Amino acid sequence: MATTNQHSYFGGLLFDSDDYSDESDDSLEEDLDFEYPPEKIIAEFTKNKQTWYLVKWEGCPVLRSSWEGIEIFNGYEGLLREWEVEKQKQKEGKSTPLDIPTFNKEVTELFQPSKDFQIIKEGQDIEPGLHVRLNIYTGEKEARLNIPMKGEEEYMPTEQELVIVPQPDEEPFEQVALRDRIPQGPPIYEAAGKITPPQMKEGGGDDFSTFQSAMSTLKSSSGAIDTSLDSLVELSHDIYYGVEIVKDGAVLEKLACLLVGSGSSENDHKAASILSYSLQNNPNALKEVHEHWKLVMYPSCTSSPFSFSTPNLISLLQGDFEKSPSPLAFKAKISAISHLLRQASIRDEFLKNGGMELMLQIFLKEGREWDAGRVRIAQLVMDNFLDDGMGAELGIWPKGALEERSVCQGKEGALKDGCWEFHLQALAGEEEWASEFLMKLMARRPRGGSGRPEKEL
């Protein structure tokens, strides 16, 4: 996200280069030496005849958005078109523009990480992915960028890390008899593992009130649904709100309908993001989905009297893909589906209703703008069906052997399950991810039948 434009950026704030040294620029780029694709534009301004866009980066909080020039959208021209539609909505009063002064104030209150540990002050928000530790002597939380430091040969992921803070000199220890160490009375109850609800503020204006309002608006389908979805996109990162979102069957069904295109062209992307964020690394949320899996797979989005079959999530997505395929939106949808497939009933219905054929159809869509979607599909298949190290349940898919080359080259047989390797072969020589995908798929592919040996793919 670091830029090299004539202005320097941090979070969403814009600083003139006269007030920001080159040394600070270099330090910032070194600290943030990773890339995230742009997700959407949330504001713009023009200075010295040049337009700057406030870009929300995929997988990052809104407060980590940054001002960028138009060149950042090479390969993401669809975001510019979506922004023009959003600006027109704002002019017509159908959408609320971003409050820049409030946004800048919130950015300044955000914890600014560096290479060194800093104390996290009360009320400060921290972004995901930082190296956070608790100093057991002071009781204060400290954080820094989650990057290797000099002298560290290997850096463990934050969730697996055991941090040892240097201990002060110990006082002489006096041996205590065992009988005196036994606590009196029942143990104190601790809510370890429980997800506690956030604190509400008197008079509203807090996240909990915003969440309740957004959920109510979404269920009633009245009011500013766009704004409600924006609120839920932000709040769904929180484990508590993620569980509450999928626990509500009506909201879950509404999100499934929006996911398949039953709404505006932007809301499908937002619905996909909400589902992904709610379920990501949130086993409690996944348990709640089990209670409402039929509402996800068979949502009541349409009520056409001419329909003689029950629509399902896959058939509705198929229609959405054929009607108006958006590479950016479908990339988000594939991520949402990947998380939903962790639920066994949804996974079984997905396979029964032709979900893998749809994934292969999207995978074969021509154009470099679909490359990111192809990577997401590869991740979906490996995480859910091929790689037990990622929690996949093996033996569910693939079931059949390889198809003949002539079958896969034909229009009618191109989407058969036994043709995945044939289509992957060309990409495997160019892309490392495709090569890994192909090897894992071949390792799990049943032998025999009409399939050819591995070397004749």
Break the fold down into its secondary structure elements and pairings.
Blueprint: E1 8-10, E2 13-15, H1 22-31, E3 38-47, E4 50-57, E5 66-68, H2 77-91, H3 100-109, E6 118-119, E7 131-134, E8 141-144, H4 178-181, H5 207-220, H6 225-235, H7 239-247, H8 249-259, H9 267-279, H10 283-291, H11 293-297, H12 313-323, H13 327-340, H14 344-352, H15 355-363, H16 371-386, H17 405-409, H18 420-428, H19 432-444
Antiparallel strand pairs: 1-2, 3-4, 4-5, 6-8, 7-8
Helix pairs in contact: 5-6, 6-9, 7-9, 7-10, 8-9, 9-13, 13-16, 15-16, 16-19, 18-19
Can you describe this structure?
- The protein has 457 residues and is mainly alpha-helical.
- The protein contains 19 helices and eight strands.
- The strands form three sheets. Strands 3-4-5 form a three-stranded antiparallel beta sheet, covered by helices on one side. A three-stranded antiparallel beta sheet has the order 6-8-7, with no helix packed on it.
- Strand 1 and strand 2 form a beta hairpin.
- Helix 13 (327-340) packs parallel to helix 16.
- The radius of gyration is 25 Å and the shape is globular.
- The two termini are 40 Å apart.
- Residues 2-12, 14-34, 153-162, 304-308 and 449-457 have low confidence and may be disordered.
